Each structure stands twice: as structure tokens, then as C-alpha cells.
Amino acid sequence: MKQTVKPIAVISGDVVSSTKLTSDEFEQLLQRVKDIQAWITEGNASNLHSIERGDEFQTIVHDIRNALKYAILYRIGIKALGKVFESRISFAIASNADLRASVSESMGEAFVLSGRGLKALKSDRFIFHSEHPKLTERFDLLFKYLDRQLTELTSRQCAVLVPMLRNQEGLSVSELADKLDIATATASKSLKASGWPLISELNSLFINQVTGLKDV
User: What Gene3D superfamilies does this protein's entry cite (predicted)?
Assistant: First the structure.
């Protein structure tokens, strides 16, 4: 067991209506969750993950500046698989945790807040909590709008966003077009339609806010 007083983020999620997926669709889903977790580990090798029964997952995030980006990556990465794929994501930031080799056995306020948030989700699909009430309140309405935006995205629009969130240094529109093998004008139009400029701006705001937390 490793105790840490530094703030960590915990992302908890599950797949909506996973029992309705075919065997092939479930395999697609499982592989995508593993891929997303590998992408998050690329951001910070200390980040840890778990998958329960294939349709529930959790990630411990040490680079908390990127917590929102990773949470969105889970949401759109799964949604990009097709219209039958959707997930619910709850993430939280708090300090003082007992971290074990098994993510599911780790404990701390971030785990409690993230788990509670996931259980509380009904029609919504995305929620955030923090041990700092002002931080939670600051983003409450913004994330409600973000949730609505992400819910309305098509799988194709999500697929365009995935490379933008995966790349640590950021991609230009022309670089995105090259990756997707599409015209630059098409890539630019797709990004605007997906709401990327506002999503990127919101992520920057989140980074600025959490950077002020102790030991970030």
C-alpha cells in the first residue's frame, strides 16, 4: 500500500445498456477501453486502471491537469465505435489516498466521490466532484453543457475528436487531416461541428483551475 497526500483524480465509468451488445460488439468495447487506458498511461506512466466485467472501468490519474481530457477521451472513444455504444463517466479530485497494486482495492476521498457520482447519474452521462466545493460548483453548469454536447455527437464526430485528445502536444488541423486521410477543409469543418474549439477552451480553463491545488 502506498499513501499519498497529493491530489489525485479518479475516473469511474460504465457502459450504458451493455447487455444489449452482441458478442462482437462487446469485444470491440473491451478492446477500446483497453486502448483508452493505454493512451492515458502514455500521458503518465503512473496512471493505473481496472476493468470489471468488461463494462465497468476505473482510472487513477496522477497528472490531474489532464483529468478532464482523459474523462472526455473515455466518453468519446467509446462513442466513436458506433451509435449503440454509450458510457457514463464520473470523475473526482481529492487528496489523501491509500493506493494499492489493485485499483479496485485502493481507497480515498477521490474514489468515494467518483463512485458516488456514477451511482447518482440518471439521464446525465458526465459528472465531476471535488473535495473543494468551490471547484465543483465552478464547473457544475459548464459540465452539464459539455455533457449535452458530447451526447449529441455522432460516432463520426467522436472519431475526429479522438486524435485531438490523444496527442499530448496538440495537433494542427492539417496534421489531423493527414492522420484521418481527409482534406484539411473537411477536418476543419468536422472539428467545428463537433464543438472542439469550446471543448479545448473548457479543458484549458480546467487545467488553470486545478493547477492552483496543493502539490499539483
Answer: Winged helix-like DNA-binding domain superfamily/Winged helix DNA-binding domain
Could you tell me the residue ranges of all domains in the chain?
2-210
Phi, psi of 99 (to 5 degrees): -100, 130
Single-letter residue type at 40: I
DSSP state of 1: -
In angstroms, the CA 24 to CA 13 distance is 21
CATH topology of domain 2-210: Alpha-Beta Plaits (3.30.70)
DSSP assignment letter at 20: G
pTM of the model: 0.93
Nearest Cα residue to 160 out of 177, 143, 183? 177
Task: Return the amino acid letter for 177.
Answer: A
- Residue 164 predicted with pLDDT over 80: yes
Using the predicted structure, report yes or no on whether residue 152 has a pLDDT greater than 60. yes
